[in-house]
Amino acid sequence: MSDDRWRGRFPRLYGLTHVAYAGCDVRYTVEPAPDHLVSRLHLVAVTAAGRVVVSRSVQGWRFLPGGTREPGEPLTELARRELVEEAGATLLGEVRPFSGFAVRSREAAPYRAHLPHPHAHWLHAVAPVEVTGPPSCPDDGEQITEVLELPPADAVAYLEVHDPVHADVLAHAVALGLVGPRG
Questions:
Q1: DSSP 3-state assignment of 104?
Q2: Helix or strand or coil: residue 85?
C-alpha cells in the first residue's frame, strides 16, 4: 500500500519534516522498514476489548508506549520491555508494524553509539496486550503517572492534548482497520 492513499488524510504526519529535539529530518511512510534501521518503536497496544493503551508521564506528556532500542534487542523484546516499563502491560501476540518515520539525523553522532546513524527508522506497530500491573518505570526511563485503556476515538482525543503526531498515528491505525476487539 502506498503513501499516496494517506497523504491527504493525515497531512500532519506527512507534513512533518524536522524534529528539533532529536536533531533530525523525518518522512512518514507505510513502506516496510529494514530491521537493522529500526532505532525506536511506539505501539498501538490494543486490549481484547479493543481499547487502546495510552500513557502519561510525570511531565504531563501523553503518548503511545514505546522507546529506544537497546543493543542487539530483537523487535519483539523491545516491544515487551517498553510495554512493561511504560504501561504495565504484557504482550500477548504478534507485533505488526504498519508505519513509521524514515529518519536522517543532522547530528554528528548517533543518540546512542549502537543506534544506526545517520539514517534510521522510528517504527509504529499494533500489538495485542493486557494491562497486568503498574508500569515498572526504570530510573533511566519515563516516569509514568497514568495508564489508561480507552476506546480508540477517546485515545485519539487524549493523545491530541500533548502529542498530535501520536494521535494521528493512532487514527491512521484505526483507518487501516488494525484497531478493534479481538475475536
A1: strand
A2: helix
Give the C-alpha separation, 45 to 51, whole Å.
Answer: 8
Cα–Cα distance between 102 and 98 in angstroms, integer? 13
Residue-wise pLDDT tens digits, 132-168: 999 999 998 889 999 999 999 999 999 999 999 999 9
Domain ranges of the chain: 4-175
Q: Domain 4-175 is classified in which CATH homologous superfamily?
A: Nucleoside Triphosphate Pyrophosphohydrolase (3.90.79.10)
- If one counts every other C-beta atom within 10 angstroms of the C-beta of residue 88, the result is 21
**Nearest to 40, CA basis, from 61, 59, 58, 19:** 19
- The model's pLDDT over 81-102, given as tens digits with 9 standing for 90+, comes to 999 999 999 999 999 999 999 9
Return the number of other C-beta atoms located less than 10 Å from residue 72's C-beta.
7
- Overall residue count recorded for the chain in this entry: 183
Cα 78 from chain centroid (whole Å): 11
What's phi and psi for 137, nearest 5 deg? 45, 65
Nearest partner of 12 among 179, 176, 166, judged by Cα: 166
Q: What are phi and psi of 113, to 5 degrees?
A: -55, -30
Partnered with residue 162 across adjacent β-strands are: none
